[in-house]
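Predict structure. Chain length: 359.
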Amino acid sequence: MNQNNKVQRVNYLDEAKAIGIIFVVVFHVLGTLINTDKKAFMPYVIRYIVTIALPIFFIVSGMLFYFKKPDNKGVKEVAKRKAKGLLTPYVCFSIILIVSYIVRCIAGDKAMSKGTVVKACISFVTLRGFSVFWFLPVLFLAELAFTFLYKKTNGLVRSIVIAGLTLALLVICPMYSKPVWESSYLYFTLGSLLLVVGRTCLALGFLLMGYMLMHIMTKYNPSKIITLVEGLVLLVGQYFVSYMVGGTNINVLSFGNSYFFFLSAIVGSYGVILTLRSLPDMKLLKFIGSHSLTIMVTHMDFGVLALSMSIAYRCIAYIPKAKVLCLYGMIFGIIALMELVLIFLFDRYLYKLLGQNKK
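Prediction complete.
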């Protein structure tokens, strides 16, 4: 692998993360519309993107691990570096949100209760997380576990262990949706710890698949046309596989069919990655991908979605003949502008909250 290929891989994997975060934002917008404007809700879009939106981040992490193997670094050193980039934003933004919950509760906000605050604190301490922040400790724990297995076992043992954990998780995942876990603070705490273990096992499976797929990609390197065709075929195939998944909520490990979910996530994510690999570099996607963490932690709880949708609906009221696509254009255009401002602010002034150095 020469240096140019290495740079190219980073570029299209950054672009893959951009697709992932765009899908996350679209999912949350559509998830809000199902309660406020069913005419604008697109269930077939949700069904298609939900199995790609987050798994692609784990798969990309596994791919990056393939050519950034920590051979000369100890597990503690890797943990320290990963904690800075993943747990620092988790801690900072979780505390900010919990404080806002407490203030709202004291102020008498009927939408906020003492129970919500207590469960948010439990979720924070157990690394279950809440809102969109749950993703960060899962990625940290999965990458740490994968690093440990990489250093302590050979490829075959590592694959068997991770495959066994993932399959076991897929078998028992219906257990996580049992109402008993919400019956008391004690059960909620126990359920939170089990959920963290389950999410980590699932993420480990995706990391392993990313690692193995990158190994295949380095050995099998067809022309860009063939790569593009392969990627598009996988994306079309994933559309049909997604119909077999049923309802999906990765946060609480709830799947209509967990095996088809895993298959759909791999097929769709690999389709996106192959397609991007065959295309010229796209600076906009690379920019979005390199700032995916900022977008992830700000688009929900900084009022970006709520404000953008409110403004879009106010504007659409003055355009009686406007189509649904016009509404979407306004919503995502406003989100893009607001996120651009936030990216500038975090890059310039608030980078420490993200565990990053000044750029």
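Summary: Residues 185-219 form the longest helix (35 residues).
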